[in-house]
Amino acid sequence: MDHLIDILVRIPRLILMHCVVALVQKTSKPRLRGKSLLPLPYKMTTIDTTGVYDPKKGAYIIVTKVDNTPPKASTKVAAFDLDYTLIKPKSGNKFPRDINDWVVLPGVGGRLTELYQNNYKIVVFTNQGSSSFDPTEFAKKIRAISNDIGVPLQCFVASDYGYCRKPSVGMWRLLTEGNEDVEIDMSKSFYVGDAAGRPKDFSDSDLKFAFNLGLKFFTDVRLLQEKLAKPVHPLDDLDPDNNTVVKPSGGQEMIILVGPPASGKTKFASEFEDYVVVNQDKLKTKPKVISVTKQALKDGRSVIIDRKNEYIEDRKIFIDMASDHEIPVRIVWFDIPRDVSEHLCVYREIMTGTHIPAIVLNKYYSRTKGLEIPKDSEGGEVIRRWFKTDLAVVKNPTIFFSYLV
């Protein structure tokens, strides 16, 4: 089977190189490289070959046996997405009705058997929903699929958000830690998935997953090359040099920050040493924010209101307080595109474990009920800022510049 891969692409062995062999151009941003990766928040030391291994956070690992034989460690990995790559609902529905609603796609069994016989380890990486996911039931499904195909599988399931959910590479990291100390040859390994950013695809997460890892990428088990556009990274060409420099005014004032989660508001506020920073993430409730703000103003302190503040009525509460104390107001608006905000939220979750629910961003970016753009007429000077990468505060640039959503 090696010739099927080698004749497609002949490239030197580069661990975690910067390209996907699917006619995708090399990116100028740094990508994931070996030891610079963020360590997993847990250590996988063994795999339960009898069923489901639960690392408590990140991904489930399901190992199947065929003829009492589990997957064997190998330098070569043939990795696959699950839904619409290996199987589809036999009911014809878009989503399966239950764990028995599946059928193996044509050609899958023969191809995986051929790969297995040529000493490839067959691995599945799949994202699943978190609300209704049942690992025990899903393990039954994977075992049934494995028996149908006739090949033992190692299946990694991301049922939650964070570093293990594709296109992030946490599941691959688990694979490398559970490969019996056998180093994977990336030049002889590949990944197959249906989410490639084509017009009919629901996303491009599979392509980005392969791109992050430097794996050859194909869109079906026939391993035919397909011309694919390079994934667009939200941070590409997004480093403006025209941001207004905002410094302390020299007198008592109020600065109201406006922007989505993870947009840099708290980092910005930390640069004002003598100001009272009123952070709703820390204080938890709006009434507490109002109370602390009132006290700070009463004490003659300058204040920074660090919360989303997307609505005029919310900003007015604080502007009126400043007016009562006859102090000026500056409104600093972090004008961040949604795709950038989503990327930053996932990066924050990977680094801190803090998950930002999708509903928060949906609400902020809603066309009808979302952000009300700040204006000087509200009673404060509006300063518009764009996102600019500050590598001095990026703890892990390789993850920061990889594809996360």
Helix content: 25-40%
> Given the helix and strand composition, which structural class is it?
alpha/beta
Cα distance spanning the termini: 33 Å
Order of strands across the widest beta sheet? 1-2-7-6-3-8-9
Mean pLDDT: 85
Which strand-content bin applies to the residues? 5-15%
SSE string, helices as H and strands as E:
HEEEEEHEHEHEHEEHEHHEHEHHEH
CATH 2nd-level architecture of the largest domain: 3-Layer(aba) Sandwich
Question: Topology, please?
Answer:
Blueprint: H1 2-6, E1 52-53, E2 60-63, E3 77-80, E4 87-88, E5 103-104, H2 108-117, E6 121-127, H3 135-149, E7 154-158, H4 170-177, E8 190-192, H5 205-213, E9 216-218, E10 254-258, H6 265-269, E11 276-279, H7 280-283, H8 286-298, E12 303-306, H9 312-324, E13 329-334, H10 338-352, H11 358-364, E14 381-385, H12 397-400
Parallel strand pairs: 3-6, 3-8, 6-7, 8-9, 10-12, 10-13, 11-12, 13-14
Antiparallel strand pairs: 1-2, 2-7, 4-5
Helix pairs in contact: 8-9
Notes on the protein architecture:
The protein has 405 residues and is α/β, with parallel strands linked by helices. It has 2 domains: 2-218, Rossmann fold; 254-388, Rossmann fold, CATH 3.40.50. Helices cover 27% and strands 14% of the residues. The strands form 3 sheets. It has a 7-stranded mixed beta sheet with strand order 1-2-7-6-3-8-9, sandwiched between helices. Helix 8 packs parallel to helix 9 (312-324). The longest helix is centred in the middle third of the chain and has 15 residues, at 135-149.
